[in-house]
């Protein structure tokens, strides 16, 4: 593509891309001499927009607006909250193509995946609209006839939310829906690298009639904004989705101020394929799921344990299907895997692969950058990789799949559980005994058996061990946003 063509395409993208801004106390804010950062298209490396950063005064205004709005929003009817959430769900479906296109532009994932992310987000709005009408207390039978005692569930207060770049719409809408549905207010700092979906969320809540101050959107240097918000006495709840190291740091900061947290952190998800599984079906499903969003998924399958008798058949099929994946610009109709979102992930992938090779691992396919423009890395399959290699011990967050054999259930459980991660896991078997042993034995917040059934609105999503605290979704979705008050009264 020549320079003129690149410039023409960049101009078209910029003209149709989201108008980026802050959203504070019901007002969309930009300009004013604020610091700005370039937003890059990872498929081209070209800038498509500028994002304004919040000033210290902006952060103070957002906090004050959230505190003021909480005094009335906490008393609002669940029916009112549900009405707003349902309207946002409706708008999400109507605008899925537009929002999805902008996600592809700033994050890189294929357009179909981006649209699907927005549609899934609308389901979370619907779910929270339904469930917020079912935030129940309870009556406790008293020991004396003239005593009444009961439990109330009340909104915790102002929440600070920090959301990731890999699923910018879906991860944010979970937190916003839970906070607003519970009667809380929220200051949201989304991902500066892929901000369009977050601004779209603010616009839809604004149009849906959400009162000013209930939702506030700020941007800035992540460490500076998180430090300021978490230390503010106004904030009573912190929710974060991201890496384990950053999550631990934010949780420690929140703990120093006795603030509750929900942490959905990284994973290193084991895949266990038994001899008795439908091996070809498992391989086909896992290729699509592994390389979804270029492997930049916290629940991506990342450690493939294949039982001895099925190993060769599985690996051959997995490589065959991997080689058929079309890698390219997410806006192209035939693309099945887009670029990595950040250029810095390119050398990180090379480091994982070089470490595996130095320990005897083999590259069966992929293993290198594709082309010179954009952040494209080939879908990669490794074999003969030892358990202590970098790829088997650290979350890769990219399109690299290591496959290793195992002999029996006890061995694979030990190997699957030996890391400090505990987010998701995958098992393929036709044996009820194997299935039972795995669902009881795997140390993870989520166990998928013979399919991928996680992350839907009506089911809880969260990890154990280093992979997090608390759950999002399901009937558990409001637990982190409500306090428990016990009332006892004597006549």
Descriptive notes:
The structure is a single chain. With 491 residues, the protein is an alpha/beta fold. It has 2 domains: 8-265 and 469-486, Aldehyde Dehydrogenase, Chain A, domain 1 (3-Layer(aba) Sandwich); 269-456, Aldehyde Dehydrogenase, Chain A, domain 2, CATH 3.40.309.10. It is 40% helix and 20% strand. The chain is built from 15 helices and 20 strands. The chain has helices spanning 3-16, 56-73, 78-94, 96-107, 111-131, 168-182, 196-207, 222-231, 244-256, 279-290, 308-323, 345-358, 390-393, 409-417, 432-441; strands spanning 22-24, 27-29, 36-40, 47-52, 138-140, 147-155, 158-162, 185-189, 215-218, 235-241, 260-264, 269-273, 301-307, 362-365, 380-383, 400-406, 426-428, 448-449, 468-469, 482-490. The strands form 5 sheets. A 7-stranded mixed beta sheet has the order 14-15-16-13-12-17-18, with helices on both faces. Strands 9-8-7-10-11-19 form a 6-stranded mixed beta sheet, sandwiched between helices. A 3-stranded antiparallel beta sheet has the order 5-6-20, with no helix packed on it. A hairpin with a 6-residue loop joins strand 3 (36-40) and strand 4 (47-52). Helix 3 (78-94) packs antiparallel against helix 5 and helix 3 packs antiparallel against helix 6 (168-182). It is globular. The termini are far apart.
Task: Provide the descriptors you would attach to this structure in a database record.
491 residues; 40% helix; 7-stranded mixed beta sheet; globular; alpha/beta; 2 domains; Aldehyde Dehydrogenase, Chain A, domain 1; 20 strands; Aldehyde Dehydrogenase, Chain A, domain 2
């Amino acid at each position: 593509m020549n320079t003129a063509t690149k410039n023409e395409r960049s101009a078209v993208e910029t003209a149709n891309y989201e108008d980026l801004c802050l959203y504070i106390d019901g007002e969309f804010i930009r300009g004013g001499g604020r610091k700005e950062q370039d937003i890059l298209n990872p498929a081209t490396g070209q800038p498509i927009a500028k994002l304004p950063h919040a000033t210290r005064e902006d952060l103070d205004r957002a906090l004050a607006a959230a505190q003021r709005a909480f005094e009335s929003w906490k008393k609002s009817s669940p029916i009112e909250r549900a009405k707003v959430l349902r309207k946002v769900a409706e708008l999400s479906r109507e605008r899925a193509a537009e929002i999805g296109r902008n996600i592809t532009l700033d994050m890189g994932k294929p357009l179909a995946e981006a649209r699907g992310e927005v549609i899934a987000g609308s389901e979370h709005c619907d779910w929270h609209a339904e469930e917020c009408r079912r935030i129940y207390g309870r009556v406790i039978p008293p020991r004396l006839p003239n005593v009444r005692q009961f439990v109330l569930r009340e909104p915790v207060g102002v929440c600070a939310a920090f959301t990731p770049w890999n699923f910018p719409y879906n991860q944010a809408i979970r937190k916003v829906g839970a906070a607003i549905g519970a009667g809380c207010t929220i200051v949201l700092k989304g991902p500066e690298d892929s901000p369009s979906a977050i601004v779209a969320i603010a616009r839809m809540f604004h149009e849906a009639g959400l009162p000013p101050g209930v939702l506030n959107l700020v941007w800035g240097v992540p460490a500076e904004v998180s430090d300021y918000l978490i230390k503010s006495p106004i904030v009573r709840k912190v929710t974060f989705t991201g890496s384990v190291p950053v999550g631990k740091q934010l949780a420690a900061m929140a703990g120093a101020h006795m603030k509750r947290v929900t942490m959905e952190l990284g994973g290193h998800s084991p895949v266990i394929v038994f001899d008795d599984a439908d091996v070809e079906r498992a391989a086909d499903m896992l290729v699509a799921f592994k390389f979804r969003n270029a492997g930049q998924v916290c629940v991506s399958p990342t450690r493939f344990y294949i039982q001895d008798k099925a190993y060769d058949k599985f690996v051959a099929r997995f490589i065959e299907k991997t080689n058929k994946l079309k890698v390219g610009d997410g806006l192209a109709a035939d693309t099945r895997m887009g670029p990595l979102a950040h250029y810095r992930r390119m050398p990180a992938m090379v480091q994982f692969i070089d470490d595996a090779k130095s320990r005897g691992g083999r590259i069966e396919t992929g293993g290198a950058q594709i082309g010179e423009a954009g952040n494209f890395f080939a879908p990669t399959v490794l074999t003969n990789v030892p358990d202590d290699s970098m790829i088997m011990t650290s979350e890769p967050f990219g399109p690299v799949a290591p496959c290793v054999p195992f002999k029996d259930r006890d061995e694979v459980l030990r190997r699957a559980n030996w890391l400090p991660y505990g987010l998701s896991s995958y098992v393929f078997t036709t044996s009820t005994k194997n299935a039972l042993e795995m669902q009881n034995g795997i140390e993870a917040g989520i166990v998928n058996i013979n399919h991928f059934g996680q992350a839907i609105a009506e089911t809880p999503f969260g990890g154990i061990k280093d992979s997090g605290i608390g759950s999002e979704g399901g009937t558990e979705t409001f637990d982190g946003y409500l306090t428990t008050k016990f009332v006892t009264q004597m006549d």
